[in-house]
Amino acid sequence: MKIEDISKDTERLVELKKEDFMELPFPYNDKGSEPDIKELTDEQKRTLEATLDGICAIGMKKPESKEEEKELIKKFLSGLGKLLTPENNWTFLMPLHHSLEYCVKCQICNDYCPIYVASGKNEIYRPTYRSEVLRRIVDKYIKKKGKLRLKISGGDIELNWPLIARLGELAYRCTLCRRCAMACPLGVDNGLIAHEIRKLFSQELGIAPKELHELGTVQQLRVGSSTGITPKALSNIIQFMEDDIEEKTGRRIKIPVDKEGAEILLIHNAGEFLSWPENTEAFAILFDIAGIDWTLSSELAGYDAVNYGVWYDDVQLARVATRHVEIAKKLKVKKINVGECGHAHKAMIVVADRVLVGEMNIPRESSIPLLRDLVFSGKLKLNPQRNNFPVTLHDPCNMVRLMGIVNPQREILRKICPDFREMEPHGVDNYCCGGGSGFAIMQSMNFPDWRSSVSGRMKLKQILEVFKDVISPDIKKYVCAPCSNCKGQIRDLFNHFKVNERCGIFYGGLVELIVNALEDLKKPFIEWEWH
Amino acid sequence: MSIFLAILTYFAYVFIVLMYGIKLAKYVRMPTHLRWELYPVIHEEKLSYGGSYLEERNWWEKARKKRPFKGFFSLLKDYFTLSDYARRNFLYWIGLYPWHIGFILIITFHILCFFGAILIKWGIDVSPQSTDALGAFFYYLTLIAGVSSFVLGILGGIIVMLNRIFSRSLREFATRVNYFTYFFTIVVFFTGFYSWFFEDPYLTEYRHFWVGLISLDFRDVSLWTKIHIVVFDLFLIYLPFTRSLHYVTRFLAFFLIRWDDEPNLTGGKLEEKIRAQLERDVSWSAPHIIGKGKKWRELAGSNP
Q: Are residue B116 and residue B204 in the same domain, yes or no?
């Protein structure tokens, strides 16, 4: 596979074969029994762009005429130009410039990419492949290096619609985990280049996966949450949570909502309310016992910490971050505390830090150190024996490698889980769950199959290896993933491979384990019900 | 010929300094960007496991203990070991290491020739027979730096080129320019080696050439020394057109991007810079933005 092959007018650039994929440990060491990646329907193939690898992540429509194609190429080039200007891209110009200009193509980063390795080292999934394509387009069409110079240098590439469509898809074959960047001795960041390609498509061509844009940031700002939960629906959910807490613990807790002047505004990923309400309930239980002055918000977007903009669009990132702090300001809280959601941590605490100025710069922090302090405060009567089952920790990339929140969650687990075991590698060297950068919520067409078979494969391998001595389905095991998107991905991954049935592995958050360890709880908080 | 050689050398040095200066100025003058750090961050107290100050509650109220020189010395050390490469791809490192050390030494060699020339102008004899310890020291140091650079440079250049040719993953991404650069460096080191081995075993001619350069009393040198000087000068002129500035930009990338964990605190200098960025005009044209005529600040506060 040559770099310039990406421009070829073929039906598919590469064929994915499961025989090529990385081997998995027992009981998944027979690739033949592994589910296949579904083929797109004929109608989908006819109308949507999937000529990269037969997978459709974005749902990009094929241009209907040559004129439309030309217009899209023109827009792509205009967007690429903007990406390289301080006016339009002050947000990432320096990192982008560095990564485009100073890669020496040593390929060291490739083996650090879980997608490239898990795919069986498919050429197009190299972190360097999409970067080199973009670099050559910049050289030829933006820097306008002459034909002769490009011929002599050997870095020519033909910009056409197949290339653009494939490059767009290729930007969604990277989870932005930035493990490749960590490996680069020169500070080049190929993950960032994937991020910038996504931005170019969204901010200039208006093309992005609908789960991230239309149903993501746009819906969040209009309706209140990317899940579709409206403020009214939230009120019902909170009522349900209070009833559920009473049923589980025997205690009636009033969950504070829109409490003006509270010390903490706690914002969860709203996916927790729908899919894992036990997580938000566990926070409420602990905060109530500890006597913390906190509140939730029922304002539009105030109850959903997600900020998908961080993955594909700087303008949407800024809009959502601004909305979050406006709500905190209105409530006159002292700080915002982010629940168990990795990308929300990264977006709200770190990336948006350089968007918010003056009175908008309200202090923002992670909930994990607060939980650590609570566990060690003596305010909670904890009995580790209640968590006497094998537990491992999945490190969300956004929280760990990208923010440096590494140890508090480990301190907690070491204290409350007698059989806590680390995956290898872990901490800042961790592997992504395979659902990073929006993948976990992208459910269209055959992308979920690819996500489970390829991008999540390395995580599955790690989980199976850490539990290999207790792999029998009769022994209950727990993967602690303090991140909603990671949990979503692990759920889908486990469903795809039937991991719960075949190996007895369950997943959940961190806070549930803390509540499960509470001494005076009549029945276990963790119910081991697959959902 | 001696005047031509001198003019070419002056030009080559001025050119590379100017071109590198322009490139670096362009780099550092780029606007403050959003935070995009990667852990471990070298100046962090919790470096051993990659932790950050964000592991603390109310982190904004606490004084941050940074170790500003740790990063500098760590990167500097890596220049001489390339340990990241050794750890991650030993085979690649086997060629890369002598090649890079060859570069470092050839630059050191020319710097030593320059300072040796100054010593000579001060009346200090720079030779093995010198009664002045400094003169003898400079002589031996220059000789060692020069000869080692030629030998290591040739060896490393050949290995990295072969690596690029025979490793599939490296070959696919290589362009003709990459091979030309390898070949050019081998020629640079080889001409130096040849002139030392066959014409100037004590490498005194370079020093005398430099004496001529600093005193404007240009002297002729033997054929292969001349060839090496021309080739080296051309190489200096060629370098700014390659990715060679990564020697320096690596420092910038680590300090200004990978380890840039500076929080934006209210009333701080960083906040001022961000305010300025938010006043920039936007021209992204996707339907949900339609930025033309709007500023970043306005877009951030809007809802499409």
A: yes
User: Of B55, B284, B46, nearest to A373 (Cα)?
Assistant: B55
Residue B71 contacts residue B38 (beta carbons within 8 Å) = no
Phi, then psi, of B91 in degrees rounded to 5: -60, -40
Structurally, how many domains does chain B consist of? 2
Q: Which amino acid is at B7?
A: I
Please, which pLDDT band fits residue A46 given cuts at 50, 70 and 90? very high
Interface test with A, best of B22, B27, B38, B292 (most A CBs within 10 A): B38
Interatomic CA distance for residues A74 and A77, integer angstroms: 5
Which amino acid type is present at position A156? Answer: D
Domain identity same for B25 and B95 = yes
In terms of domains, do B275 and B191 share one? no
3-state DSSP call for residue A155? coil
Helix or strand run (H / E) with residue A265: strand A264-267
Average pLDDT along chain B, 304 residues, taken 10 residues at a time? 89 97 97 98 96 97 88 93 93 96 96 95 92 94 97 97 94 91 97 96 92 89 95 96 92 97 94 97 93 88 81
Closest by alpha carbon to B207, among B81, B118, B96?
B118
- The pLDDT tens digits of the residues spanning A468-481 come to 999 999 999 999 99
- pLDDT value, residue A150: 81
Render pLDDT for A66-96 as a digit per residue (tens, 0 to 9).
999 999 999 999 999 999 999 999 999 999 9
Q: Give the N- to C-terminal CA distance of chain B in Å, as an integer.
A: 70
DSSP result, A469-518: GG-STTS-EEEE---HHHHHHHHHHHHHHTHHHHH-EEEE-SHHHHHHTB
B136, B281: one domain: no
My answer on whether B169 and B290 are in the same domain is no
* Contact yes or no for A253/A288 (Cβ under 8 A): yes
Q: In chain A, which among 407-426 make CB contacts under 8 A with chain B? A: 407-408
- Say if B208 falls within a structural domain: yes
pLDDT for residue B291: 66
What's the pLDDT score for residue B1?
A: 54
In what order do the strands lie in the sheet containing A364-366?
A294-295, A264-267, A335-338, A364-366
Say what the ipTM of the complex is. Answer: 0.95
Which residues 103-142 of B are in CB contact (within 8 Å) with A? none
**β-strand partners of A518:** A382
Q: A292 touching B, CB under 8 A?
A: no
3-state secondary structure of A344: helix
The interface residues of chain B toward chain A in range 202-261, judged by CB-CB distance below 8 A, are: 243, 245-246, 249-250, 252-254, 256-258, 261
Please list every residue in chain A whose beta carbon sits closer than 8 Å to the beta carbon of residue B257: 94-95, 98, 187, 189
Q: Would you call A156 an interface residue with chain B, using a CB distance cutoff of 8 Å?
A: no
What single string gives the DSSP state of each residue in A372-430? HHHHTTT-S-B-GGGG-S-EEE---TTTTTTT---SHHHHHHHHH-TTEE--SS-GGGP
pTM of the model: 0.96
